[in-house]
Each structure stands twice: as C-alpha cells, then as structure tokens.
Design brief:
alpha+beta, Immunoglobulin-like, five-stranded antiparallel sheet, 27% helix, elongated
Length: 166
C-alpha cells in the first residue's frame, strides 16, 4: 500500500513538472539574409548581410562562401551591429550554386550555425593571373623551379650511387 502511494506521488510530481514546465530558451534564428535563401543572382554581391532575431557576437571567420566546385570567395572584415552582420565579399568563380556558411554566438553564449544557398547565374569577375615584370605568369616560374629542384635531386642521387664503398 505504501509503495502504491509513493509511486502515485512520484507520478503526480513528474506529471506536474511536464505540464507546468515553461518553454525552453531558444537560440537566435536567422530572420533574413542578402542574398536570400534560394536566390538567383545575375551579378555577384559585394557584401552579404545576415539579420538575426537578437544581438549576436562573432567568432573568428564567421562567414564562408563556397561554390559547388570548391571555389571559395574572399571574405573581408565582418561588422556586427546588434543582430545585423555585414561582411564584404569578393566573388571568384563560375556561374554555379553557392553555399554561404555562417556562425554567430547567441546572447546565451552558444554557437549558432547555418547556411544560405544561392545561385550565381553569370560568372564572377575572374582573378587576373599574376605576371612578373617580363610578362610570364608566376605559375610558370613555380613549375620551372620545381623541375630544377627535381633535376638537382636526381643528379645528387646518381652521384651518391656512383661513390665507391669503403
């Protein structure tokens, strides 16, 4: 009989806790973005803007923009004003689907992350190849340097093999 009463008391207390419990505190949510989720853009944006439901702070590298082919955009210094995060971006890549990945720190200190997907319908400005003073692309000099280094290694190994053994 005592066990039934104790069980009933515990069951009543548990039911009361479940019924009377308040809502769990939620993290901030992304309310708007530019570019918007699913947007198709004819020209690449020069900045992205994320608007949250409450003030946020930023961790290091809070925003990344990556194309389906792995192309990463150059990201400038982010600015935050309350719940609005603005980040200058420089596109570099073809017309394709892109993912904007973001991370902020909510008022309660927890990290909140998310993504925004958009499509660039025309290629972004292509990065100009770096040229030296003679007009030869830098990548050619890198290849020539690597080939020279490999030649030195091969000659050195051949000489080591030709040395008489003691």
């Amino acid at each position: 009989m005592i066990h039934r009463r104790a069980f009933g008391a515990v069951l009543a207390a548990f039911t009361g806790l479940v019924v009377l419990a308040g809502p769990a505190s939620a993290h901030t949510e992304l309310e708007a973005s530019s570019p918007a989720e699913g947007a198709s853009l004819a020209t690449a944006p020069t900045q992205v803007e994320l608007t949250f439901g409450e003030p946020v702070t930023l961790p290091p590298d809070p925003v990344k923009v990556t194309g389906r082919d792995g192309t990463a955009w150059k990201i400038g210094a982010p600015a935050v004003a309350g719940g609005v995060v603005t980040v200058p971006v420089t596109s570099s890549g073809p017309a394709q689907a892109y993912t904007l990945t973001w991370q902020v720190v909510a008022k309660d200190g927890d990290n909140v992350t998310g993504t925004v997907h958009f499509t660039l319908t025309a290629p972004g400005p292509a990065a100009a190849p770096t040229l030296d003073s003679v007009g030869i692309p830098t990548w050619i000099w890198v290849l020539v340097s690597i080939a020279g280094l490999l030649a030195v290694i091969v000659v050195g190994l051949r000489r080591l093999r030709g040395l008489p053994k003691d």
